[in-house]
Please model this.
Amino acid sequence: MEREALEAGARQILLTNLRRGVADWNGKEFSFVVPSLRGYPFQWFWDSCFHAIALTHLDLDQAKAELTTLMSAALPDGFIPHIIFWEMEKQPEFLARNIVGMVSPNYSSTIQPPILAYAVERVYEATGDQNFKNNSLPILMAYYRWLRANRDPDEDGLISVIQPEEAGTDCSPKYDEVLGIEDLSNQGFISALKKVYEVYQPLRGDDKKILETNVFHVEDVLVNSIYSFSLRALARMLGDSPDAAEFNKEADKTRDALVSKCWDETTSAFYDLSGTDESMLKTVTISSLMPLILADLPRQIVDMIVEKWILSEEEFWLPYPLPSVPASSSKFISGNPGGFIWRGPTWINTNWFLSHALRRHGYKEVAEAIVEKSYEAIELSGYREYYNPYTAEGLGARDFGWSTSVSYTHLTLPTSDLV
Model:
């Protein structure tokens, strides 16, 4: 398939998955791309950020609308939910198949990896729209301050997630111990998650009290890498101001905490921390690589991760890299038995992050190989939610929005990616 055909396919998916209207429950206009027509009928937080970045190459007005719609769901305290049910008539069918913690029938009560500031910066760079940036900045500042105030109780710079879906990596084996999963299957995961939800139900809306239960209190490496990465983007947009200094300081604090608390030199990997005692969850997954997205990660750490994990054919360097779990793991599953996801398949969004990161750190050939193999997987199986890392068989949802982001990784990197 020619590169032009891939881009045409990406355009078709993004525009076909577009939803516009006025929400009955708040009277606000919405304009956003659903992740997939099957199974994902609403707006998901980090999916929309990827959609907006891809849309900067197709439709600048829609790229702005995507993020404006997402930010319009911000609550007065700064919180932005990970799912917004703009079209309520689709909610009963969705909730019948999914368990979602809510304090309102209109949106979830949880977060997702906080890539929003970076997405806004990318859209601003593409459009030059000063009004878009100026309107976004107060919402972004309130959001990242909300995360710091509500999700970092020990004030160490690492924010916590209260359930697996918040990290976007759902059934990852790194959570098996915390959840106490007895049956290693999707049904076993759901059963364990329901127990967490039962504890949370009377506390929903008070994240500090939820964290105090210590039921699922995880300082997640992937989430915090994206948090620091995006704080830096927010600071850049704020220019030379006290607010910029505040967010740069927080980005530094998070980076330093990742290195001092989550890095394990003996295994050359980063690990999540669990509970108020911050016990290290020593399961290597794609999250263990994610601090590479930080431009100021110490060079020695960068090289150790790349050499030991990324370039090893026994670990992450499979025929279609990078799998979500290294092949050497006893919990590696190349497919998705019953929807038991993030336990082996390759995901385009993490490839997008890490290919850009590797290029920034000077591993240009490695980055280009990941991109080319991602293209090849799409040529063989279409734009799918994730792929078998050995065969490139497409798995999960079809015509998946964020997988279109790989179609534009060959283009010149924006200024923000070169910092």
Summary: Confidence is low (pLDDT under 50) at residues 411-415. The CA atoms of residues 173 and 331 lie 7 Å apart. The chain has 14 helices and eleven strands.
